[in-house]
Amino acid sequence: MTRSVHTVDQENVSATRTIAVPAARVFDVLADPAAHPAIDGTGWVQEAADRAPLTEVGQIFRMDMYHPEHPDGNYQVANKVHVLDPPRAVGWLTGEEKDHGHLEFGGWTWRYDLAPIGPSETEVTLTYDWSAVPRSVRAYIQFPPFGPEHLTNSLDHLAGLARPQ
User: Fold this and answer.
1) What is the DSSP letter of 143?
2) What's the confidence (pLDDT) of residue 31?
3) Cα Rg of the chain, angstroms
4) Residue 23 main-chain phi, psi, to 5 deg
5) All residues at 6 or more sequence positions from 132 whose CB lies less than 8 Å from its CB, including other chains
6) What is the mean pLDDT of each run of 10 residues along the chain (165 residues)?
7) What are the E-state strand segments in 1-145?
8) Does the reported pTM lie above 0.85?
9) Whole-angstrom distance, CA of residue 128 vs CA of residue 144
10) In this structure, what DSSP letter does residue 53 have?
11) What are the beta bridge partners of residue 78?
């Protein structure tokens, strides 16, 4: 099992791990929003509000969240799929639903890149990117809002979920 955590530049952080399962299986787990609470390395993702598998760019899926420092504690995010290339990559922008159903995205993204290493292993890189976050948001949210160990934790959880039972 290979692991490394590194900052690519000042506006994103990534972690890489080799998982002993085929890329298609890893992708299937990532494309299932119901699995995201179990994958999450921060403990903030509570439950998938939308459980349909991720199948197209532009698809919206919502997650129920909890963070003790969020003004409401419990809140919901709306994620918009912006990368979907089975079984190589999946990524989404995170935002929230405002009045009258209008979605606003904060400028940060999550992305998983999968590289097959033979028929039964996959190198998975998880990247959190905040390069598009406007200064007005950076004034009250520190980026990244978690340590790099949370990315490693997510990849560890993903490895456990992807393994055949």
Assistant:
1) S
2) 98
3) 15
4) -60, -40
5) 107, 108, 109
6) 59 93 97 94 89 97 85 87 98 91 93 95 96 92 87 95 87
7) 3-9, 12-19, 45-48, 60-66, 74-85, 89-97, 103-116, 122-129
8) yes
9) 8
10) P
11) 62, 95
